[in-house]
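Suppose you are handed only two things: the residues of a chain and a line of SMILES describing zinc ion. What would the bound structure be? This form records exactly that question and the answer produced for it, so the two can be stored side by side and reused later without any lookup.

QUESTION INPUTS
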Amino acid sequence: MVGELICAMMEGKGRGVIARHSIAASDLLLCARPAVVLEGPPDPEGAPDAARLVPALVQAANAQDVPQIRAALQYLYDGTDASRLQLPDIRTMMNLAKHSSSSSSSSSSSLQEGLQESCCDHDHSSGHHHHHHDSHSHSAAEPAAADADKLTEQQASLLVKYNAFADDYEDLAAAAVRGAAMPHSHVGLWPQFALFNHSCLPNSVHYLVGHAMVVRAVEDVAAGEELTVSYLGREEFAPAGARQAVLQERYGFACGCARCQLESQAPRQLQQQLLDTYRQVMQAPRQLQQQLLDTYWQVMQDLKPRFLEAVEHQDQSNLAAVQAQLQTLEHFLSAALQQHRAVLSDSAVLVLQAAVYDLYELLLFCEQLLPQGNEAESKHAALACIGRCLAILNCVSKGAELHVFLASRLLQHAVDLRGPDSAQAEAAAQLFLEAHRMRYGSQLEQQVQLELMEANKQAAEEFLM
Ligand SMILES: [Zn+2]
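ANSWER OUTPUT
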């Protein structure tokens, strides 16, 4: 096994990916090609049906001459023999990518690390296009990819069921910087990516650049620690019970991640950096947990639908009624959090608040749609609302698109309200830069960094109210 990542059996949850060496936040972990991918229009219902992947996967797996993908598919399926599995060595890949971009005049050659759509895997495997009996075989593992290994329809459908990944659109800023005509929705299977286990408080972020799946660490990770991604989309902003129901239904496992344990107060082992937070949340009484859950359901089942309807019909009086109810909920919740503040650290409060993130986001939107008081007052109120949402995301969803978008919005408001040279604007600019580094790495050329930031500012305009 080569590379920074090792695939290993994890206690109690099957295979997983662990760090061979210590990894720093914002380090690139994986940039992988799909075994198969289908595109659709870029909207929430746009991604093609995952069932359509099955015949395509059978054909692709049996036709293509990419031993790593074949081995990864086989491993995904039977999960036992890791000896044939090679996770790509990110350092080798980087060198190859740099080498190929320096010798290429393509417009994307200035995009470094995971921003290259010409996927690193491809570079990595070039030169391997020989038959298995070729005496130049690069590794002892390759000859095993014989006809007997051909993927069947039944195997493919199970692989798709548990491992397919769909997204409404690829990374918008990277698409803009690459000059992609139009971002697409995708459904596909990225075998190496599918090896990562889920956590509701993941230490990695993932997204698509073209067809390449990019995975980047958002926390420092010690050698031997597991690397995790979130399988949840928007459902990550829900209490443990609701998240677990989604994961059970969609992927058939019971999530026992640190955040779930932290919320359920049923401890076992916990990642080191969460231990402190965890101990304190452990002391949060049952009523507070119950209040979070009640608030969540009230927001999701009653207030959010009414909010969206009022916005659609530009019904100001209904919007004001929803806003008043949201404020009442928020008032009681923050009083409850305050009551137990002595036993809750700042990050514990943020992790708990993440369960009802929608409440805070709706309050922000209300503030912008129905400003109260004079202009300066309402701008201050909006700034405070953005700050609160951003703090939650910075705790549970580092490097996510929403994190980057909200940081952009905070910067814009801070500049607007306090001026571009103010301490607030400077602090906001720093948060925006950090969110960017988490998502795109810290070693981008300055020009690319600036282009991405500009593209994200524009994307944030379109995607946030
Ligand atoms: Zn969990």
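WHAT STANDS OUT: The longest helix spans residues 286-312. The pocket of zinc ion is lined by residues 200, 243, 255, 257, 259-260 (CB under 6 Å).
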